[in-house]
Amino acid sequence: MIEIDDLHKRYGDKIALDGVSFSVKPGEMFGFVGANGAGKTTTMRILMGVLFADSGQVRRDGRALAFEDRRRFGYMPEERGLYQKMKVAEQVHYFGQLNGLSPKGAAKATGDLLERLALTERAGDEVGALSLGNQQRVQLAVALVHDPEVLVLDEPFSGLDPIAVDALAEVLAERRAAGVPVLFSSHQLDLVERLCDSVGIISAGRMVASDTVEALRAREGRRLLKVVVRGATPDWTTGLSGNITKNGDEVLFADANGSDQEILRAATAAGTVEHFGWERPTLTEIFREAVA
């Protein structure tokens, strides 16, 4: 169990974290989402000991994290920390030894990971000569080479094509099945919804939602009324009840129970109604509402 408890961090007058708390259980994949500058990377750096919090704690199984704990973590920073002139296989092997593997053990782990991540043909290439997507795969191999007990990945899917995304998702699912807590941040909310057991949404340094994906979508029996009206003026919802979120022609009404017929009449008068119905919110819709 990894616990983030009431983290606060300030840079001068800027509040980066304001009481951030959540936990990641063994065998759980936790998606950490938020806009740029919301506090995701700062939280992960504090978890890894790269930064220090002004207050709050990071714990593992109820005790404060120590240096030896973090040595058994796999960390993938958003900014690639790779040696550009070193060859791919040499680099992964090197980091395997830095993390305590024997030369033979590091060589075996390197070969296995390069095959899993479709990098075998690039083993002899310098990292700097690779595409950004392939560099991302190498960074992931570096994070996984020592068979870490916890995974902390900052935007691991950034720059990957769909095939690479599927390969990475399969590797992470295997680690989760082995009981490893997996924490990763991403702006790809559809991917987070598909892969993760739980999600935390952070906005301006505060956690605005944290729960299982299923619980967030079904919270308090909550449904959204989704209405798509073509040709309507932006102000057609003026005076209607409910918590309203707009995205082009699509309008979402939360807490609009009992007023759906009123909304339907207004939509029909405003333009061509192409969609009108109740549905459970997607993670993207929950995110938009939470950070609004």
From TrEMBL:
Localization per record: Cell membrane
Keywords: Antibiotic resistance, ATP-binding, Nucleotide-binding, Transport
Gene Ontology biological process terms, A to Z: response to antibiotic
GO molecular function annotation: ATP binding; ATP hydrolysis activity
Membrane spanning stretches: none
Signal peptide positions on this chain: none
Main location: membrane
ABC transporter domain span: 2-229
Membrane-topology annotation of the record: Peripheral membrane protein
GO cellular component assignments: plasma membrane
Family recorded in the similarity comment: Belongs to the ABC transporter superfamily.
Name this polypeptide is given: ABC-2 type transport system ATP-binding protein
Lineage summary: Bacteria, Bacillati, Actinomycetota, Actinomycetes, Streptosporangiales
